[in-house]
């Protein structure tokens, strides 16, 4: 009986020394709910006429960090010290201008404010689906895709097109029919939306929640200017995207289905791409809830600058003119101007799982050792182990002597 009490006391002592280490468990990993709640609808339509004028801010990462830096959490203009005034007639409720090569955020307004994206979300669709869909692959378009709501490139129900042709329709004329056709080619709308949300998270775009592949409004579907800058940077890393987006004019081929003639496609951003020095790519968007949105990139002085405008207006200057003025302003800042934030680097691939029980044991042992050191006030792990072994040995010897004495 006394031996059992001794063993129990020893167990209690060891538990007090390092409970989690001895049973091989780690502390809980913080969870991050992405994104914050969406605004309450004020209209029953698919494109609400009166969106919340103060949408919920994002900007908090999975471990509670301010994504891109604390200054970017401000809902006001954030500028470098001693910077000149921003260009006149900048109508966007939220914007970010950044150096895409260095990752420096040069200036921002409500960078993490969460707004409806409209069709600039098609950049995320492109970044997500390009690696999955070879350009020469042919697909037959369903009636549901061809007749989807909103802007159309002119896909025909039952028509047969290459992925290249559909991507051009997606980016040149913002075809929602093309977004739905690509989603179906990638395994379905639900799978595509899930993949887009995963891509956003992997890019560090924690303000973004996708509900449609086209950018058609959903009240839970929101993003931020900061997040769209991350998406723009990822899109520019894909040569196929650049090739599609810069085409001035092309067409969808004639189709026997419906006896349809070739459909011309003219780039909606032709003025930006042809009139702005160094213009690289651009995408616009519009819905009643989103108002006007814009994403573009311009090369100046050997650097690529990105601009995102959210909930903007096209007067007195069009969006591409506002964006160009903002890049000109940013590029004129003195060399060495301190950034107001940073573009986060994309998340790496998930750590490989241990391939054997021995590997898993090593992982648990490493976690246990680190926690053992932490729980014992920073005492080196090896000293704690020596102490535990000594206690075990002493207790065993004491128990043996005590039993012999009985």
Mean pLDDT: 80
Rg calculated over all Cα atoms:
28 Å
Structural class: alpha+beta
What are the low-pLDDT stretches, counting only 5+ consecutive residues below 50? 1-32, 41-47, 348-392, 395-406
- Total helices: the number is 13
Shape: globular
Could you tell me the strand content as a percent range? 5-15%
Let me know the largest β-sheet.
7 strands, antiparallel
Please estimate the helix content: 25-40%
DSSP strand count: 11
* Pattern of helices and strands: HHEEEHEHEHHHHHEEHEEEHEHH
Distance between the termini: 12 Å
Please tell me about this protein's structure.
- The chain is of the alpha+beta class and 406 residues long.
- 37% of the residues lie in helices and 15% in strands.
- It contains 13 helices and eleven strands.
- Strands 1, 2, 3, 8, 9, 10 and 11 form a seven-stranded antiparallel β-sheet that branches.
- α1 runs antiparallel to α13 and α5 packs antiparallel against α6.
- It is globular.
- The N and C termini lie close together (12 Å).
- The N terminus and C terminus are likely disordered.
């Amino acid at each position: 009986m006394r031996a059992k009490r001794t063993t129990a006391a020893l167990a209690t002592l060891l538990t007090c020394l390092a409970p989690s280490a001895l049973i091989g468990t780690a502390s809980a990993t913080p969870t991050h709910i992405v994104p914050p709640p969406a605004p309450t609808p004020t209209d029953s339509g698919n494109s609400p006429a009166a969106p919340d004028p103060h949408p919920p801010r994002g900007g908090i990462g999975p471990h509670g960090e301010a994504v891109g830096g604390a200054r970017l959490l401000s809902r006001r203009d954030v500028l470098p010290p001693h910077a000149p005034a921003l260009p006149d007639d900048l109508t966007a409720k939220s914007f970010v201008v950044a150096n895409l090569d260095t990752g420096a955020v040069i200036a921002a307004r409500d960078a993490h404010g969460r707004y409806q994206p409209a069709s600039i979300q098609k950049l995320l669709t492109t970044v997500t689906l390009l690696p999955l869909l070879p350009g020469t692959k042919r697909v037959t378009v369903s009636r549901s895709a061809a007749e989807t709501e909103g802007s159309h490139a002119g896909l025909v129900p039952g028509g047969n097109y290459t992925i290249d042709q559909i991507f051009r329709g997606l980016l040149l004329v913002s075809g929602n029919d093309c977004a739905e056709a690509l989603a179906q080619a990638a395994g379905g709308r639900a799978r595509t939306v899930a993949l887009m949300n995963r891509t956003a998270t992997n890019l560090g775009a924690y303000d973004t929640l996708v509900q449609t592949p086209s950018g058609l409004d959903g009240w839970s579907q929101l993003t931020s200017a900061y997040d769209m800058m991350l998406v723009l940077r990822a899109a520019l890393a894909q040569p196929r995207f650049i090739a599609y987006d810069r085409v001035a004019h092309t067409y969808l081929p004639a189709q026997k289905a419906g006896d349809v003639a070739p459909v011309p496609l003219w780039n909606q951003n032709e003025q930006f791409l042809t009139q702005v020095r160094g213009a690289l790519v651009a995408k616009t968007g519009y819905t009643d809830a989103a108002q006007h949105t814009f994403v573009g990139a311009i090369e100046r002085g050997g650097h690529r600058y990105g601009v995102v405008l959210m909930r903007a207006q096209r007067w007195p200057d069009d969006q591409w003119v506002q964006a160009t003025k903002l890049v000109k302003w940013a590029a004129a800042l003195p060399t060495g101007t301190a950034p107001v934030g940073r573009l986060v680097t994309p998340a790496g691939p998930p750590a490989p799982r241990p391939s054997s029980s021995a590997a898993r044991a090593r992982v648990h042992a490493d976690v246990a050792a680190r926690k053992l050191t932490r729980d014992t006030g920073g005492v080196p792990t090896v000293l704690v182990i020596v102490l535990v072994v000594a206690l075990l040995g002493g207790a065993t010897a004491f128990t043996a002597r005590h039993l012999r004495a009985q």
